[in-house]
Amino acid sequence: MSTMALEVKNLESWYGESHILHGVNFAVRDGEVVTLLGRNGAGRSTIFKTILGLTSKRTGSVEVYGAETILMPTYKIARLGVGYCPEERGIFGSLSAEENLMLLPEIAPGGMGLDEIYEMFPNLYERRNSPGTRLSGGEQQMLAMARILRTGAKLLLLDEITEGLAPVIVQKLGEVVTSLRNKGFTIVLVEQNFRFAAPLADRHYVVEHGNVVEVVQQSELAAKASLLNEYLGV
């Protein structure tokens, strides 16, 4: 039976005086891929930041591989094996692609070596000596994902990895997510591109007004298509 990689219960979160999350509940088993779907401003990215302790206040429960983290500082949460790929990517423009890859510390054993990274992302091998500022948007996104794979993290929080990218790059990222799943990674996607997310995920959590309002299993996608259209406005 699969162990629970991430379990979120009654999670509330604030930015200063602004109350953003209102009792979020969801769970991800080890080896699953799930998505957090919703319109812009629904609170999906804030869920990631709250899981990592990056908001001004949070209450409720967040268990990572069975460890309660609600009172932990961010660096200790990361050391439980959590990798975060933020929407803004965070590439160091003055460093080469390979220097960016080598920068992060190991947080757990089993991080990917450069050869494995370059096999998964051939573009990065070709551009390994190029400064971060010279990489395309798609190459920067690949680099941001590849960087957290070096750390040994097994629970990956990926925020809007397809936003603004060409269809050929989006297709490549879908192949990468599938490959990572096959290697045993657990992945949570915040995603606007439902066509990208739909075939990849075991389960979709629909977020609206800072709460999970609907859960759609992979097997229910066809039956709940009209409901998803209503929530997502697609």
- Note the total helix count: 9
Provide the CATH architecture of the domain at 1-81 and 188-234.
3-Layer(aba) Sandwich
Low-confidence stretches: none
Across the major sheet, the strand order is 6-7-8-3-9-10
How large a portion of the residues is in β-strands, by DSSP E? 25-35%
Say which CATH homologous superfamily of the domain at 1-81 and 188-234 is assigned.
Answer: P-loop containing nucleotide triphosphate hydrolases
Helix/strand order:
EEEHEEHEHHHHEHEHEEH
In short:
This protein is an alpha/beta fold. The chain is built from nine helices and ten strands.
Word description of this protein:
The chain has a domain at 1-81 and 188-234: P-loop containing nucleotide triphosphate hydrolases (Rossmann fold, 3-Layer(aba) Sandwich), CATH 3.40.50.300. The protein is 31% helix and 28% strand. It contains nine helices and ten strands. A six-stranded mixed beta sheet has the order 6-7-8-3-9-10, with helices on both faces. Strands 2-1-4-5 form a four-stranded antiparallel beta sheet, with helices on one face. The radius of gyration is 17 Å and the shape is globular. It starts with a strand and ends with a helix.
